Task: inverse folding
């Protein structure tokens, strides 16, 4: 874990030193850098979401065709997903990718805001750039709160930060997830049910993290989610309108349209 943790500690400490010894600004800039690195993953996620919306008409046909055979329906759905490059759970992937990042960031903040002589010695041994020792110990105060400690639920500012974590996580998930699909009986299919469940679980889970871990990590969540929301909005705005998957008309419909043409040919 040190091969991830030590570069993070070094980067956070470096940003802190060049941004006027402001840990909040260091976390914000660090978050922007993380979002830039993971942008290709975000773009792929949005493309997968768009593809999911395009195959919905064909998906409804499959649900009607195999409504009494769940096994064949599942096989047909997976084949359709593969054909059009659709990932039915693509909306969850970027958040799971971020798990090791925010775990390492949490530990980096704890190490960077060392409060004891032992922690200060450990911190100095983890810095990969010479000269950064002069930046420690770092200022861990933000609006009267300790950035290295979990929020005090009696503090309205801390509660507002927790609320922003939950809200921004929910908004980002909704903007990067495909619209839920319905079966002919009105119930969502398995992929849509999983997406809807994750849309509830992820904000609650991140809210729990915000309550349990340092306030510095909550700031990372809020900034990261806000950037993700902006990226999703800009990408969707700049993309051309989605075109639905064209399906062949029923055989009867083709016959009806063909007959007038045949009669017209005969009359000539």
Result:
């Amino acid at each position: 874990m040190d091969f991830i943790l030590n570069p993070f500690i070094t980067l956070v400490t470096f940003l802190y030193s060049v941004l006027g010894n402001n840990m909040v600004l260091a976390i914000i800039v660090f978050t922007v850098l993380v979002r830039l690195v993971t942008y290709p993953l975000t773009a792929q996620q949005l493309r997968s979401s768009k593809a999911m919306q395009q195959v919905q008409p064909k998906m409804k046909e499959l649900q009607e065709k195999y409504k009494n055979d769940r096994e064949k329906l599942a096989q047909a759905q997976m084949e359709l997903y593969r054909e059009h490059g659709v990932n039915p759970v693509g909306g969850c992937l970027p958040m799971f990718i971020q798990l090791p990042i925010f775990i390492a960031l949490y530990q980096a903040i704890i190490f960077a805001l060392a409060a004891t002589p032992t922690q200060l010695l450990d911190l100095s041994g983890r810095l990969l750039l010479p000269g950064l020792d002069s930046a420690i110990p770092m200022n861990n105060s933000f609006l009267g709160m300790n950035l290295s400690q979990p929020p005090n639920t009696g503090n309205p500012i801390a509660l507002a930060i927790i609320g922003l974590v939950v809200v921004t996580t929910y908004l980002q998930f909704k903007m990067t997830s495909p619209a839920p699909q319905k079966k002919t009986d009105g119930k969502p299919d398995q992929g849509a049910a999983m997406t809807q469940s994750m849309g509830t679980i992820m904000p609650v889970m991140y809210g729990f993290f915000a309550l349990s871990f340092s306030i510095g990590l909550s700031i990372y969540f809020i900034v990261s989610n806000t950037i993700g929301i902006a990226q999703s909005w800009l990408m969707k705005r700049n993309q051309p309108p989605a075109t639905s998957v064209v399906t062949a008309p029923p055989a009867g419909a083709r016959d009806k349209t063909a007959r007038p043409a045949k009669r017209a040919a005969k009359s000539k």
Notes: The longest helix spans residues 215-238. Residues 2-238 form one domain.
